[in-house]
Design a protein that fits this description.
With about 180 residues, the protein is an alpha+beta fold. The protein folds into two domains: about 40 residues; about 110 residues, Muramoyl-pentapeptide Carboxypeptidase, domain 2, CATH 3.30.1380.20. About 60% of the residues lie in helices and about 15% in strands. It is built from six helices and four strands; from the N terminus they run H-H-H-H-H-E-E-H-E-E. Strands 1-2-4-3 form a four-stranded antiparallel beta sheet, covered by helices on one side. A hairpin with a 3-residue loop joins strand 3 and strand 4. The longest helix is centred in the middle third of the chain and has 24 residues.
Length: about 180
């Protein structure tokens, strides 16, 4: 039997212009205002707040493309591996206060929701991801190096990259 989330009634005040935006969004999407507010709050607490606390910032894909195109590939790979290790020691540990396979999967899901379109499927102990970033092949190379360093440091198991294209990467690993 599926457990249900308990919903509680709460009243709060919002500026009039936000109320109008909320009503417009409700009309356009057909969702209830409660469903939309739950989604907004969930996104904030599960995705936005942790990255804001770590000092992450959003940058445009055009800027990332320019950086990737100008960077020497060996330096790009080296920086990605160093950043992958840094993510483990600084970001994951800070956000979750422990580092293990379960936390890794949670971190990846939060991170990928923030930066791209992705899918995640689990078959027994194997996690399969497909990440659509729509940047370029060099960004795909950067992500593969970063993820390999990050995942293998936590799981002590290899990452398998099944597809690497200019717009997406697909990979799997076992926890």
């Amino acid at each position: 039997m599926e457990s249900r989330i308990k919903l509680v009634h709460h009243t709060f005040r919002i500026p009039d212009h936000l109320k109008r935006e909320l009503e417009r969004e409700v009309r356009e999407t057909g969702n209830s205002s409660s469903a939309l507010l739950i989604k907004l709050l969930d996104n904030y607490f599960e995705r936005d707040k942790p990255f804001e606390q770590l000092g992450f910032m959003l940058i445009g894909k055009d800027l990332v493309r320019r950086w990737m195109d100008r960077m020497d590939e060996e330096i790009l790979r080296e920086d990605a591996r160093e950043l992958g290790s840094q993510v483990v020691s600084e970001y994951v540990a800070h956000m979750y206060h422990r580092v293990d396979g379960e936390v890794l999967v949670e971190f990846l899901n939060v991170w990928f929701r923030k930066i791209s379109e992705y899918s995640h499927q689990v078959n027994d102990k194997t996690h399969n991801y497909s990440v659509v970033h729509d940047v370029n092949i060099r960004f795909s190379i950067f992500l593969t190096e970063l993820l390999e360093a990050l995942i293998e440091e936590i799981t002590n198991k290899p990452v398998t990259f099944v597809r690497v294209t200019p717009n997406l990467i697909a990979f799997s690993f076992e926890v």
